[in-house]
């Protein structure tokens, strides 16, 4: 089936953001005598998490940011993880904190997230950040949702007045992306594992955000002709949550997997780290 949709190239858009971040990071380091610092907390031995952390550390170094890694063992308790994060929150040499998801089952992730000082929550995972997104107040946004909005903006795709179907309701992706799009005057429908007749909801949407973590759950035949498809899923084999080829034959714009939403997530994380550093010294 031929691809007719235009590809939303998150890799290209992220490169522009990285260039701006590098310039701001250099200015910060020159003015403060130290680089902006992102501390990453990794609990346990999940291979994918280790890969993600290495990728973020490498990008931070390329942009002139200090990357500080805190590795905690798999048997870490909630109290121990909270203490480690709280110490980073109180460390004046740390500007941003990222707690890599997921944590081992015995760790209360919400409690660990809440140990992050709001001004250092560059991944947008605390209740303060969630409230800021809901209230359109100053604060940090969840990185993948913000990356999705920024990618739409980069291609000058209208959001106001559009019908959006968000498939997924996680606290770090589905819910916040809906809040951000609602703040931009979209009409947002949230769908999830218990939604009846998911295809009918998707078929009504001008913008579809797939954020459920199930390979090719969103069938191409469901896509409204001319709709914009933002696939935030990543599953083994470089497969997203959307049936790409079939969806691309009906959509006007679509994100690839990989190379679509993923690079934008890291770009927003790096940008918000520099922003956090600048705010702390202003």
CATH topology of the largest domain: Rossmann fold
CATH architecture of the largest domain: 3-Layer(aba) Sandwich
Distance between the termini: 54 Å
Overall residue-averaged pLDDT value: 96
Strand order of the largest sheet: 1-9-8-7-5-6
Beta strand count:
9
| Global morphology | globular
GO molecular function: methenyltetrahydrofolate cyclohydrolase activity; methylenetetrahydrofolate dehydrogenase (NADP+) activity
Protein name: Bifunctional protein FolD
Pathway: One-carbon metabolism; tetrahydrofolate interconversion
Binding site for NADP(+): 168-170
Task: Give structural notes.
- Its EC number is 1.5.1.5, 3.5.4.9.
- InterPro entries: Aminoacid_DH-like_N_sf, NAD(P)-bd_dom_sf, THF_DH/CycHdrlase, THF_DH/CycHdrlase_cat_dom, THF_DH/CycHdrlase_CS, THF_DH/CycHdrlase_NAD-bd_dom.
- It catalyses: (6R)-5,10-methenyltetrahydrofolate + H2O = (6R)-10-formyltetrahydrofolate + H(+); (6R)-5,10-methylene-5,6,7,8-tetrahydrofolate + NADP(+) = (6R)-5,10-methenyltetrahydrofolate + NADPH.
- This is Bifunctional protein FolD.
- This protein has helices spanning 10-32, 47-62, 78-89, 109-114, 127-135, 143-154, 174-183, 198-203, 244-248, 261-281; strands at residues 6-7, 37-43, 66-72, 96-99, 163-167, 187-191, 207-210, 228-231, 253-254.
- The chain has 282 residues and is of the alpha/beta class.
- The chain folds into 2 domains: 33-117, Rossmann fold (3-Layer(aba) Sandwich), CATH 3.40.50; 142-261, Rossmann fold (3-Layer(aba) Sandwich), CATH 3.40.50.720.
- The longest helix has 23 residues, at 10-32.
- It is globular.
């Amino acid at each position: 089936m031929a691809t007719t949709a235009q590809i939303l190239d998150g890799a290209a858009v992220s490169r522009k953001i990285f260039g701006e971040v590098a310039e701001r990071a250099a200015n910060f380091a020159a003015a403060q005598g130290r680089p902006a610092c992102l501390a990453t907390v990794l609990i346990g031995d999940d291979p994918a998490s280790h890969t993600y952390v290495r990728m973020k550390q490498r990008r931070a170094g390329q942009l002139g940011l200090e990357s500080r890694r805190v590795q905690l063992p798999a048997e870490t308790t909630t109290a121990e993880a909270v203490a480690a994060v709280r110490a980073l929150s109180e460390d004046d040499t740390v500007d941003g904190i990222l707690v890599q998801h997921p944590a081992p089952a015995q760790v209360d992730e919400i409690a660990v997230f809440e140990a992050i000082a709001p001004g250092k929550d560059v991944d947008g995972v605390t209740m303060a950040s969630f409230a800021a997104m809901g209230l359109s107040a100053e604060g940090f946004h969840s990185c993948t949702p913000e990356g999705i909005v920024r990618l739409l903006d980069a291609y000058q795709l209208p959001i106001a007045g559009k019908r959006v179907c968000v498939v997924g309701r996680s606290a770090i992706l589905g819910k916040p992306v809906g809040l951000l799009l609602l703040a931009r005057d979209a009409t947002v429908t949230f769908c999830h594992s218990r939604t009846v007749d998911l295809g009918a909801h998707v078929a009504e949407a001008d913008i579809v955000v797939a954020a459920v973590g199930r390979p090719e759950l969103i069938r191409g035949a469901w896509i409204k002709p001319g709709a914009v498809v933002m696939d935030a899923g990543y599953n083994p084999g470089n497969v997203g949550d959307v049936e790409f080829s079939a969806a691309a034959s009906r959509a006007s714009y679509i994100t690839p997997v990989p190379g679509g939403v993923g690079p934008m997530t890291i770009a927003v994380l790096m940008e918000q780290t520099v922003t956090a550093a600048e705010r702390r010294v202003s």
